[in-house]
């Protein structure tokens, strides 16, 4: 383990560089907002967003060490959820929109940026399933992938939690495939103890720990798409969950009392 002074210096340098890219991202999105107001929206925004994620990832010290499978488009992407890092990891690999908890919208700067690039927000305990399903249906129907962290909350990556099936209805209604995506930090033999953002951990404190370490290793496994036509949403959720667990070689979380949509939501 490096001395605390070395780790703090590393984190400080990374934070300074990250601030620079946040400024770049803000400037680009202000330009996009202006172009929309003038009736000339940028068609290249998805490519710009992916470029931004690709530049930010190494600043965070994250290395995408392994990618298997091929992303399909259009698709409803269903992933396990370990950390806030998941968004930048997936955003660096594919042009996609995300479903996020409504609290993210109130985060300084990040919330505004998320809204500008097309993030969909879900309210904790809210009765908005049909509205979200309709929005997701419109986007995937127009060829834009949408990422759903179907567990509804983060885990430490050692098991796959229960999936909320309701939002998978949009895939069935549009006929687009569901593509399970498995995310793992560290390796199966040595899971990463720092990357998971779970429980009551503080975002700022967790982010500082991530910036302090030398590197964070992540694997992403794009599983075979699941044909959604003729399959109910619960079966889609179960098949997606099983595919992710198989890729990660981890167990499914034991059944517990049923969860309601919005009881827990992802970031």
Automatic annotation (TrEMBL):
Keywords: Acyltransferase, Lipid metabolism, Membrane, Transferase, Transmembrane, Transmembrane helix. SUPFAM superfamilies: Glycerol-3-phosphate (1)-acyltransferase. GO terms for molecular function: acyltransferase activity. Residues 75-186 form the Phospholipid/glycerol acyltransferase domain. It is found in: Membrane. GO terms for biological process: lipid metabolic process. The keyword Repeat does not apply. It holds the Pfam family Acyltransferase. GO terms for cellular component: membrane. Its main location: membrane. InterPro entries: Plipid/glycerol_acylTrfase. The keyword Protein biosynthesis does not apply. PANTHER family: LYSOPHOSPHATIDYLCHOLINE ACYLTRANSFERASE, PHOSPHOLIPID ACYLTRANSFERASE. This is Phospholipid/glycerol acyltransferase domain-containing protein.
